[in-house]
Every structure is written in C-alpha cells, then in structure tokens.
Amino acid sequence: MQATAAVITGWVWTTPVFCFKRDRETESRMMTVHFIGAGPGAPDLITVRGLRLIEAAPVVLYAGSLVPAEIVAAARPDARVIDTAPLHLDEIISEIQAAHDRGQDVARVHSGDPSIYGAIAEQMRRLDALDIPYDITPGVPAFAAAAAELKTELTLPDVSQAVLVTRTAVRSSSMPEGQELANLAAGRPTLALHLSINNIAKVVRDLSPIYGADCPVVIAYRVGWPDQLFLKGTLSDIRDKVKESGVTRTALIMVGAVFGDAAFTDSKLYDAAHHHVLRPKVQTSPD
Ligand SMILES: C[S@@+](CC[C@H](N)C(=O)[O-])C[C@H]1O[C@@H](n2cnc3c(N)ncnc32)[C@H](O)[C@@H]1O
After folding, report:
1. Mean pLDDT, all residues of the chain
2. Less CB within 10 Å around the terminal CB: N or C of the chain?
3. Ligand 1 pocket check: which of 111, 115, 172, 229 to mutate, most ligand atoms within 8 Å of Cβ?
4. Mean pLDDT of 114-135
5. What is residue 279's DSSP assignment?
6. Ligand 1, atom 27: nearest CA belongs to which residue?
7. CA proximity to 197, closest of 149, 119, 253
8. Helices (H), strands (E): how many in the chain?
C-alpha cells in the first residue's frame, strides 16, 4: 500500500505517533483481500476485527462447511458470497482478480486460524504476483478451542513445556523429511495432531513406545459446533473408541500427560517468593 504523506499528530510517551494520509483518488481505487480466521465453529469465537471486515466487504469468499453459517450471514445483503469448497485455486484467484478490477474489498474467510493448514500461502503467492494487496486477521485455532473446552493448560510446569502442532502423512500430502511423527514427538511434547483421525492406528503405533500405552489421549471432534464430541482414553484403547464412535473427520488427536492428572508444580509467575519488574521485592527498613 502506498502512503503519500506522513503527519505527526501527537506524542505517546516519547514516541511520535504517525498518521498516514493517502491520496483520496488512490484510496478509492485500492482494495484489499482480508484473510480472516473464523475460529473453530462457534460463531462468537471470531475476532471483533474479523467480523467487522466480513460485515463491510462487498465480496466474501469462505471455506465451505467449516465456517459457520452465522458468520457468513453477517455479510452485507448486497455482498457477493461464495463457498470456495468446490472451486480450485485458479477459480478462487479469478474471483479475487475480478473484485480487484472492480475496486472491491474481499473477505477471504478460513476456519480456525489461517496460519495453520489454511492453504493461504499459495493464495498470497498468487496475489503477490498480481500485485493485489492483502492482510491477515488471526482466528482461534481448533486446538486452542479444544483446550478451553477441556479446561486444560497445554503447558504444565514439569510435565510439558512444548506443544507440537502437526499432522501425519496421507496419500495426497507427505511429511517433509525429518518431520515424521516419531521424530518430532521424541521429547514427549503435548500433541495436537491435525488431519490424522483416519491414521489413528499408525499414530498409536508410533507414539506408544515414546509416551507409553497408558498416556492420555483426547479426540476432539467438531469443537465449537453443536455436535461437538470428546472421546477420552489412552494410547492403548483410543483406537477402539474412535472406531466405535464413527468419527472420521474434523477431529484433533490430542496426546500427552497434561490430559491426565499429572502432578505439576505451581509456575514461578505467581510465586510469592519470585520477584520481577512488575512485582519488585519490597525493601523493609531495618529497625
Ligand atoms: C485444514 S485444517 C484447518 C485447521 C484450522 N486452520 C485451525 O486453525 O484449527 C483442518 C483440520 O483441523 C482440525 N480442525 C479444524 N476445525 C476443527 C474443529 N472445530 N474441531 C476439531 N478439529 C478441527 C481437524 O484436524 C481438521 O482435520
């Protein structure tokens, strides 16, 4: 985006606040593609910014069944609203190009947070080539929404201080060399496995020697949707539970001791004996 003038409008502490004034004519012709994370499903889990952009956009492109109807319904009555699930990349880009030619903003809505398996990089690469401006508004990823529903902290002191967001290979997508599940999981991080529910047998086979057969596992199905479901078990019995439930898509496999009743210590953050810049040690005067 081209800024044609910068004006100092005020001071915050010692830092000047700059306000960029654009040439009016340029602004009216400029459009932006707003990539927006819609959150996992519950329509009130979108950000305020994301919702406002959707409400204002003359063109709304959304990713099929994983974006709730209520969020799409927030579009203007005269908006061009398109489900991109049946479209291929070229068709999506030509919709955007047409909006660009009309000078119209596009709200490009993805499920969860678009930075996680959102396939936005390939769209942004095309937009760069076409010199079409874009920005990104983050969303609540499904794994964070699952942790909230489970009332679980994914990073418990002494138990796990790492969260591994990954997937397993399927016929259409392989894993880069070195990122096979057994390699990445060697340090027993808390796992949020995406796009892998149909690989549950292999996941159990790969993880059991590392985490132990009694390690807790939660299958989080369609978190935030009215039919949300959690299956709780261990590496030894979760495969049968998944089979019985009939869950075959839109589920996370969450693995790790944090999902059990692992003993953990309090964090240092609120430890009365721990002082830091916002809670300095009070000097007592000698008497
Ligand atoms: C293409 S990825 C999109 C992930 C999304 N960008 C996010 O931030 O959660 C789709 C996979 O994410 C997981 N997923 C997405 N939404 C979900 C939900 N509401 N409940 C459970 N898992 C979900 C599933 O593993 C699903 O196969």
Report:
1. 89
2. C
3. 111
4. 97
5. B
6. 195
7. 253
8. 9, 12
